[in-house]
Amino acid sequence: MTPVTTEHVARFRSFNRYLTRRIGVLDDHYLGQDRPLGEARLLFEVGEGASLRELRSRLGLDAGYLSRMAKTLQAQGMVRISVHRDDSRLRVIELTPAGRAEVEEQNRRADAFAAGLLDQLTADQRTRLTEAMGTAQHLLRLAGITVVRVDGAHPDARACLDAYAADLDARFPEGFDKADLVRPEEVSGDAGAFFVAYEEGRPVGCGALRRLEPRIGELRHVWVHPDARRLGLARRILAALEEEAVVRDLAALRLDTHASLTEAQTMYRACGYREIPRYVEHVYGDYWFEKRLTGPARRGSASG
Q1: Which residues, other chains included, contact 98 with Cβ-Cβ below 8 Å and sequence gap of 6+?
Q2: What is the C-alpha to C-alpha distance for residues 73 and 81, in angstroms, rounded to an integer?
Q3: How far apart are CA 184 and CA 300, in angstroms?
Q4: How far is the C-alpha of 203 from the C-alpha of 227, rounded, in Å?
Q5: Which residues pair with 254 in a beta bridge?
Q6: Hey, how many other C-beta atoms are within 10 angstroms of the C-beta on 287?
Q7: What is the per-residue pLDDT for 303?
Q8: Separation in Å, CA 161 to CA 72, 158, 227, 301
Q9: pLDDT tens for each residue of 275-294
Q10: Which of 210, 52, 234, 218 is nearest to 160 (CA)?
Q11: Closest CA to 206 of 225, 183, 191
Q12: How far apart are CA 207 and CA 279, in angstroms?
């Protein structure tokens, strides 16, 4: 992977400084209301109600900081905090009528602020700006996702596989049998590896590697949650699996895929996998692929 340059870092930071100043992040009266951005954003995120644990994960906030903001808003009559009716360990935060009125006013002012900025541009410039912002959000989402190796029996690994199975069961004309999923011992320790992709603490993708025969590995269950598709995440998971295969001194990786998964076939071909004859009997296999990992360039190839 190409190293990040100092120019890239400088331009990124310069944009951040401009944007935070321009939208009033540094102002204690965000959008002209009598509260800083942190409290205003928390009110917005509460919406129809949420647990403090969910908000902490969603916003990436320190538990103590979130608790202090919530108590401030509660003292001002903007929110109510109570114990979850089904789980006494969770605290739930909800907007009061005053809180809902402030969020409505916040949305009105934010819309007016955005419209005021865009009004200074031509129609073409607005299109270019909003498209560029969409691209920036797309790439920042991908940058914020981490791909982590976990044990094959980890709850997040099994949850991803359950979601993967449900997805394929809906897409395959013949349905999908969960008995086809890899067992934890096949993708743990010396036998293989399992990777989970996390976005803001939530599992949004997975992929498995298992040893098929000496120096030959097999990829299984490369999957991305529908909410995280079209970001390039599947390729990142694939790169992590290939890097792991290099570490394990595997000479080649094989896989099969179903005829319905045309996007998967396109990705594998684009990533250097070539179609080969059937190498194993598999009820869901219609196409079989292999990628050689031998030679000095294989680590760079794995990084994609």
Answers
A1: 77, 78
A2: 10
A3: 29
A4: 11
A5: 218, 290
A6: 19
A7: 34
A8: 41, 5, 16, 27
A9: 999 999 999 999 999 999 96
A10: 234
A11: 225
A12: 20
CB 164 within 8 A of CB 177: no
- Joined tokens for residue 216: 């030959």
At residue 302, does pLDDT exceed 60? no
Q: Which 8-state DSSP code applies to residue 188? A: S
The count of residues in the chain is: 304
Neighbours of 233 (CB within 10 A): 22
d(CA 78, CA 72): 9
Predicted pLDDT of residue 24: 80
Q: Could you give the CA distance from residue 285 to residue 42 in angstroms, rounded to a whole number?
A: 48
Specify the 3-state DSSP secondary structure of 164.
helix
pLDDT in tens, 178-233: 999 999 999 999 999 999 999 988 999 999 999 999 999 999 999 999 999 999 99
Q: Which two tokens stand for residue 91?
A: 């605290």
Whether the CB-CB separation of 40 and 95 falls below 8 Å is answered with: no
Q: Find tokens 């541009």 and name the residue.
A: 121
- 105 or 299: whose pLDDT is higher? 105
CB 187 within 8 A of CB 194: yes
- Which pLDDT band, with edges at 50, 70 and 90, does 124 fall under? very high
Instruction: State CA 22 to chain mean position distance.
Output: 28
Quick one: pLDDT at residue 34?
Answer: 85
